[in-house]
Amino acid sequence: MPEHEGPAESSGPRLSDPEDARRVVTGSATANADGAVAGEQSPRATVPEESPEAAGHEASEDAPALAPIPVGESGSDQDQDEHGYGEFRKVIHQVVNNHFHDRVDAGGSVFGVGTASRLGLTPGLVDLAEVDKALEFYMPPQPHFSSAQERLTSRNVVSLVGQDGTGRRAAAFALLREVLGGHAQIRSLSPATSLAELADSSAVKPGHGYVILDYVGDVQSAGVQEFEMRRLSSQLRKSGSFLVVTSSEQAIRLQSLKSFCVRWSAPDPSELFNHCLKESPDTTYDPERLDELRALVSTLRRPDDVVAVARTLAERGLEHSLESLRSGERARVHAWFRDPTRSAEDTLTVAALAFAEGLPERTFEKVLFGLTLAVRNWEHTMVGATVEAAVPALPELRIEQSRSRWSVTTTGLIEARRDYSTSDDQIRVERCVFFVSPRIRELVLEQLNELYGLQLWQPLRQWLTHLSQNGDLQLRTEIAAGLALLARYALAEVEENHLDVWSAGYVSQRVTAALTVQFMSADPQLASHALNLALQWADKRGPVRAVTAAMALVGLGRPYQFESLNWLWYLSARGERVAWAARSSLYLLLAAAEDDERSASLTLRYVRTRMETAREPREQSRAATAAMLMLSGPSLDGSSPLAAGLLRNSSPVAGPLGRLWARLLLSNRRRAALDALCTTLSALRDEPDLSHTVRSLGGSMQEAMTERQWKALRRDLLHLLSHPDYAEDETQRLARFMLGLLRDRS
User: Fold this and answer.
1) What number of H helices and E strands is found in the chain?
2) Phi, psi (5° rounding) for residue 634?
3) DSSP state of 637
4) Can you list the domains of the chain with their CATH numbers?
5) How far is the C-alpha of 633 from the C-alpha of 641, rounded, in Å?
6) For the segment 664-705, what is each residue's pLDDT rounded down to a tens digit?
7) Could you give the 3-state DSSP secondary structure of residue 726?
8) Going by C-beta distance under 8 Å and a sequence separation of 6 or more, which residues neighbour residue 265?
9) Distance CA 583, CA 128 (A)
10) What's the rounded mean pLDDT across residues 191-198?
11) 62: Cα within 13 Å, side-chain hemisphere
């Protein structure tokens, strides 16, 4: 192999890409001007400098040791982790292709005529047109709004403290509009942003508005948090900018920060509805029918739901609005659970389906039997009997037509139909059991949580734990989807009894916990809670939970991409087991964004900047290892190299991809980078439409090299392409086109 130029000629980050030079404020406000994130500290800044974690060694683990590995999960820790990531990758591929999305994305108003707002959920600049739309029917709840406006005006920062679903998000944008006017830019920051980091950052721009939605809190004491809040207030006042934070009482020290906080509660639904009527186009309605609608609206708890009714009234009329509230899905589920003829078997059927939807009938029957058995065993425990107690004589044999009973006793809730998306062989397609709509599944979980106690939920917990250990991947994915929906109504139940326990459990449980966090991250109401949970696992909770956190951060990469990148990079500096998981997650984060040019480009730029700013040999090695996995790994479906898929789906990604490749080609991973480049070109050889994209890839590499380095690359690449594995004429022609040796491929 000819001699090549090493990385010595590099003098730090090249700012040839304008995006590299912009300050990223969408994450934890720790980005420097190059897009790099300084230091190897935990993004929470809670790991002491002398901590063995910070030195790359695992600290002693507080979590209990793993129990004996069940059948099918034997092997070393590495074997288990590889198996878990293999399962997780399969589900990521299914979610990206919407195999599960339609059944788990059940967001919306409680009566099914609206959708949950995602305004400001993803960190970054907020579309002002979206703000206008969200505030179309906004009514400032008094006296909360006036108190918050007074604090924001005088201190430049205010925190709205209250429960989810009380209108805090809309209030945050309404307050910023009041103090800044309707044309000032508003940027949403990550809910994990540290007050100290924000106060220290020079990224606060004059005359801007900032929001932190569903703030997850700092770990400092009350006195430290108050000090940082006052520093932040001073910084914002100097720049003429304003910040509104929405949080729960658990996330913010309300007593020590009371001068910055306002307790928030939802406006009266009747008052809000009357306000919406005044803001709507003038229409005459039957007074008695309108009063009937008002009575139904008065039972709604969320401002979003009240506004959705007003919009439906304006767009579709009074009768449709009444029908939606009177006999919609919520009313149907509510009436079903309160039917006095409803049997325990019926309740267990819908309870099992809430966590096991979409399974073939024969599989669902086994799952349902397991839940029924768990309930009966719990009843024995409650009355003091043991499992070994004598079994009474069997009654007269009777075989129940259980499948037909479902269609009778659960009419309007459950249906069995053939799911042709599960197999290409239509003869083998089985009937599967579903709720009649995604919304029904969520409403069933709401009613189960609202109406039933220990007699149902304790055996349900045991049943779910058993399935998380032994269920197949499809079943455990449905369990994760069900838990994510349940978290809307019982977050503590989901976190404490399932996710936190499973995050340090068997590999099957850890995958299920990570999938639950992924589904929660797609819900605007739960995304910040999901992020906080993953960060708790990542930060000094031991290597097992850290591996689970790394997996969960892949799903969090869509709403909180920069935050996920920061934490995965932090985890990649820990012990080898955690570092391997972090590198695998960085690769999956890129693979999941194969069709998303913006996200893919940001991930590639982030890793390249990390390579360019690495100074210590160990840091350089881990950066190169992570980058190499990204460029040599397969796409999610395994059909081609990931790099080839990125180039097929988006030509603009060729720039950041080529610059990252150039960094590797100038490192001690040169041979592996050359092999990956040849494999990618071979995968693209039959796609002439990509000629200019490939040339752009080569051009970005050339820009990042000296003339001598570029000539060395030409020699090495053409030499390697003479190998029989790459000796196809089209591959060699494509390589020459990339290197600028051919003008076109005709």
Assistant:
1) 34, 8
2) -85, 165
3) T
4) 1-35+593-746 (no CATH), 124-263 (3.40.50), 269-327 (no CATH), 344-386+402-476 (no CATH)
5) 6
6) 999 999 999 999 999 999 899 887 778 889 999 999 999 999
7) helix
8) 141, 144, 162, 163, 166
9) 37
10) 80
11) 5
CA 484 to chain centre: 11
Copy the structure tokens of residue 522: 């797609």
Q: Residue 212: which H helix or E strand, with range?
A: strand 209-215
**Measured distance CA(314)–CA(448) in Å, rounded:** 34
- The Cα-based distances of 205 to 180, 202, 568 in angstroms read 13, 8, 28
Cis link prior to 143 (omega < 30° from 0)?
yes
What distance in Å separates the CA atoms of residue 14 and residue 662, rounded to the nearest whole number? 12
Find, among 569, 519, 580, the residue nearest to 547 by Cα: 580
- Reduced to 3 states (helix: H, G, I; strand: E, B; else coil), residue 160 is strand
Alpha-carbon span 92 to 99, nearest angstrom: 10
**Residues 662/707, Cβ–Cβ less than 8 Å:** no
d(CA 95, CA 100): 6
Structure-block tokens of residue 274: 């009357």
- Copy the structure tokens of residue 409: 């006793």
pLDDT value for 219:
56
Per-residue pLDDT at 297: 85
Is residue 435 within 8 Å of residue 414, measured between CB atoms? yes
Tokens of 539: 């930060």
Nearest to 408 by CA among 467, 339, 356: 339
What's residue 218's pLDDT?
65
Helix or strand holding residue 161 (H, E): strand 157-161
Q: How far is 172 from 163, CA to CA, in rounded Å? A: 14
From the list 674, 672, 667, 716, the residue with the least C-alpha distance to 8 is: 667
CA distance 170 to 304: 9
Nearest by Cα to 534 from 509, 522, 512, 551: 551
**Strand ranges inside 175-276, DSSP E:** 186-189, 209-215, 242-247, 261-263
